[in-house]
Amino acid sequence: MTDTVMYAAEADDPYLLGAGETARLLSAAPWKRLAVLGDSGAEGVTEAFDGYRCLPWSERFVPELRTVSPDLEAVNLGLRNLFAAQVRKTQLAPALAFRPDLAIVFAGGNDMLQRHFDIDAVADELAVIVGSLRETGCTVLTSGLFDITSSPYVDERYREPMSERIAAWSERTKQVSARLGAVHVDLPKHPAGTEAIYSTDGLHLNARGQAILCAEIVRTLAEQAL
Question: Whole-angstrom distance between the N-terminal and C-terminal Cα of the chain?
């Protein structure tokens, strides 16, 4: 069976990019060094979904960016289960040492899931990460969160408070990004948020969700590369 047949669903997905579209959108992309920082969202924890390549978003994005920047160097420091403070303590220095001109930061999601969530303190941690990278002249991209409570895999008891926290943290991330001049992917508004994009663990994106996230990163960065 050919890849074309195996992954036909990708070609028909209205939210994904068509063949050659990344090269067109990012034709003016200046980036040569990419660093990814964060938690499981950065790492790309996922699971298979029929008709899609089972790849984390970064393993889609790096080859896409290399279509216009063949010499791109990339490092993904993302690691599941980390809180924002741990991302700052363990990943910021290595990221800065890598000297990226593009950084993608996904942090705060694990903090949000704790019984006690100090949104101001977590936002301060995010601001240190983003601000430190921005001070070097690096383009920084952050993202809001899809509301995973639309998934059937989230216990009904937790849907409302979890949805409220997701909305609050997504908005705060957007505010931090705007204040520091970062680029932001506004996922809460994406129509795929109510569709089958979630893993059965009730926390992460499945292979389709990862593909959609990659496409939105490309579209958002395209506006910066103009």
Answer: 39
The answer to whether residues 211 and 60 touch, using CB atoms and an 8 Å cutoff, is yes
The answer, as to whether pTM is greater than 0.85, is: yes
Q: Which class for 85: exposed (0-12), middle (13-18), buried (19 or more C-beta within 10 A)? A: middle
Amino acid letter, 210: Q
Contact 138, 103 (CB under 8 A): yes
For residue 54, the SS3 value is coil
CA distance 112 to 159: 13
Inter-axis angle of helices 119-134 and 84-98, nearest 10: 0
pLDDT single digits (tens) 49-96:
999 999 999 999 999 999 999 999 999 999 999 999 999 999 999 999
Could you say which DSSP state residue 18 is in?
Answer: P
Coil, strand or helix: which one is 137?
coil
